[in-house]
Amino acid sequence: MSFLLRSSKNTLFYSGQQVIKRQAHKKANIAVRLNQFVENIGRQDEVVSVRPGLMRNVLYPAGKATYIDKSQEVLKDAVKVEEKQQNEIQQERLKMFTEEAALKKDQLLDNLEQIRELEFNRAVVPNSDHTFGSVTAEDLINKIKEKFGLNVDKSTIEFKSEGGRIKSLGKHQVLVQLNNRTTEITVIVKPAN
């Protein structure tokens, strides 16, 4: 800021001269692309708005930023529109995929509800009802695939008995949960002949 003394007849006089306060013309901010991280301004490849003096005196000479042409701004807008369209297409595909997966899970659960019992034969410990080999989720998956041709994920099977496996003879309940729906399968473990 500076002061300018002018002589004038129609204004207040200060020993025959008027005191006028001058201000420098402030230029509008310009958009620049940062070539590297600049503290308090932005990250690399980010488009930011800065004062022309900062760009001219500090950022550009140090190679920290480059000027953006008007044509580059138009291209940037076109790229943003294209990215938005790609995101919309991708979200539609994802939505269709999730709907399709949910439908497949419902069909699988409907097929699993038709399975009431599965039988397994295991060797028995003498004078007890405990078995030498337990019935695991892997055994259930293999039996369901072999008998019914259904593919079930191991994480959907939940045993009501301790340890996540069946270790004794008799009837046992196993839950299969898909899409917040559950079906119960009775597993019968018999002694091997």
Write the layout of secondary structure elements.
Layout: E1 2-7, E2 17-22, E3 30-34, E4 47-50, H1 52-59, E5 65-67, H2 70-113, E6 117-122, E7 130-135, H3 137-148, E8 157-159, E9 166-168, E10 170-178, E11 181-191
Parallel strand pairs: 6-11
Antiparallel strand pairs: 1-2, 3-4, 3-5, 7-9, 8-10, 10-11
Description:
With 193 residues, the protein is an alpha+beta fold. It is 33% helix and 32% strand. The strands form four sheets. A four-stranded mixed beta sheet has the order 6-11-10-8. The protein has a three-stranded antiparallel beta sheet with strand order 4-3-5. The longest helix has 44 residues, at 70-113. It is rod-shaped, with a radius of gyration of 39 Å. The mean pLDDT is 83.
State the separation between the terminal residues, measured CA to CA. Answer: 105 Å
Residue runs with pLDDT of under 50 for 5 or more positions: none
Helix-strand pattern: EEEEHEHEEHEEEE
**How many beta-strand runs?**
11
How does the overall form come out from the CA principal axes?
A: rod-shaped
Mean pLDDT: 83
Helix content range of the residues, please? Answer: 25-40%
SS strand fraction: 25-35%
Keywords:
3 helices, alpha+beta, 193 residues, four-stranded mixed sheet, three-stranded antiparallel sheet, rod-shaped
Summed up:
The chain has 193 residues and is α+β, with helices and mostly antiparallel strands. It contains three helices and eleven strands, in the order ββββαβαββαββββ.
